[in-house]
Amino acid sequence: MGESVRSLRVGLAGLGTVGQSLVRLLRENQVEIERNAGMRIEIVRVVSRTPKPEVDIGDATFSTDINSLLSEDVDVVVELIGGTETAWDIAKGVLATHKPFVTANKAMLAEYGNDIFDGHTQVGFEAAVAGGIPIISGLRTGVSGNKIDWIAGIINGTSNYIITSMEEEGKLFEEALEDAQRLGYAEADPSFDIDGIDAGQKLAILAAIAFGIPISMAGIHMEGISEIEVEDLQYARELGFRIKHLGVAKQTANGTQLSVHPALVSETELLAQVEGVTNAVLIGANAVGSLMFVGPGAGGSPTASSVISDLVEVARGTMINAQFGHVSQKYISIEETESCFYLNIPAVDRAGVFAEVAEILSREGISIESVIQKSQATRKNNGETWVPIVILTNLVLEETMESAQNELQKSASVVGPIRRIRVSQFNS
Ligand code: HSE
Predict the structure, then answer these.
(1) Among 18, 109, 158, 277, which is best to mutate for testing ligand 1, by the most ligand atoms less than 8 A from CB?
(2) Which helix (H) or strand (E) holds 370?
(3) Which residues have CB under 8 Å from 297's CB, separation 6+?
(4) Residues in contact with 427: Cβ distance below 8 Å, sequence separation at least 6, in sequence order
(5) Tens-digit pLDDT string for the chain (428 aa)
(6) Contact 113, 215 (CB under 8 A)
């Protein structure tokens, strides 16, 4: 852009929840945005799959043709349509023109990020991870003087919203998911949220920035929240924990660990207090120590707020080209990691059964840290009386835990599927 440009002219793809919020916020906060950007930011072209006459796009020209974004009068393209393939077509078109490109699309970045960042175009993606939290600029700039050792984050607002609603309001899983969809938090395909895929995509982006590695989903172990029962949330609380859905990235001597899964988090940790659609990213870095970023992880205005921060950087001329590593990584599998575990074992209510469970665990060298077994939790099934035995183990290799669980599951005293959840610690 030359000296004479007095406004940044935006071509916007997508008029969904975030696109509509972007249009509104650029108008409502025009004075503040102009002050921060040093120039006016205005939308001149809008592209959407279908016309949306109910949305006031001001003087912008509307089209259903993505090629209109490549017009001369557009300085920067913002992609908010979601999905992967059309978004990637838009990205390729913009990158070929070397105009700046802003996207909130973590699915596209996780799939094509290495190609996108191979070029010399400025690419902003603050809105792709953790909604309104400025975690991308926090990592790229705020902690740029550090070696990052690990990241642990609540990075899917929908999952955290569902878990909190089940725990605090006793809502059913499906009911809480419907609420999250109605409030505009959930992905078009909510299985991306509840199966951990969305969090995995975000973790791939965070790890790439933090560790300077290629963006890749290949080494990520992904689990979602659909197996968690209200009773697990209650037992975890009794043991002094909350259950959260976490994305964990860690550099170890043996390789990079990337995993997304539910975890018990001690109630003394700040992460345990993060509720509802709120996201939080905890970073362990060698100069600053540990640092936590917290804020709304989804929703129209928070996500549009992040998009605007990218546009402000473009307007100021401070948007940097992302530099990710190209060296392929050695990833360590989840079986090679160590954790303490929460086990919920449905077992026959008979003398000696607990001893049998303890004996199987002890054969694998697993010691027990805490136990809950309540007589009022007794249930009947096919005439058999059983109780959940809830155990917290000491630190054990996941592979060993898996083998012990298989042994337990074979026991005639265990009457149903055992549920197992990792316990996360953030001090190493
Ligand atoms: N579905 C995502 C979430 C939206 O719930 O976190 C923000 O990426």
Answers:
(1) 158
(2) strand 368-372
(3) 130, 131, 132, 133, 154, 155, 156, 157, 160, 277, 278, 279
(4) none
(5) 445 558 999 999 999 999 999 999 999 999 999 999 999 999 999 999 999 999 999 999 999 999 999 999 999 999 999 999 999 999 999 999 999 999 999 999 999 988 888 767 899 999 999 999 999 999 999 999 999 999 999 999 999 999 999 999 999 999 999 999 999 899 989 999 999 999 999 999 999 999 999 999 989 999 999 999 999 999 999 999 999 999 999 999 999 999 999 999 999 999 999 999 999 999 999 999 999 999 999 999 999 999 999 999 999 999 987 667 777 789 999 999 999 999 999 999 999 999 999 999 999 999 999 999 877 777 877 777 899 999 999 999 999 999 999 999 999 999 999 999 999 988 65
(6) yes
Top mutation candidate among 106, 108, 154, 156 for ligand 1, by most atoms within 8 Å of CB = 156
Instruction: Give strand pairing partners of 101.
Output: 77, 123
Cα torsion 392, 398, 399, 400: sign: negative
**Residue 363, number of CB atoms within 10 A of its CB:** 11
Is residue 202 flagged as an active site residue?
A: yes
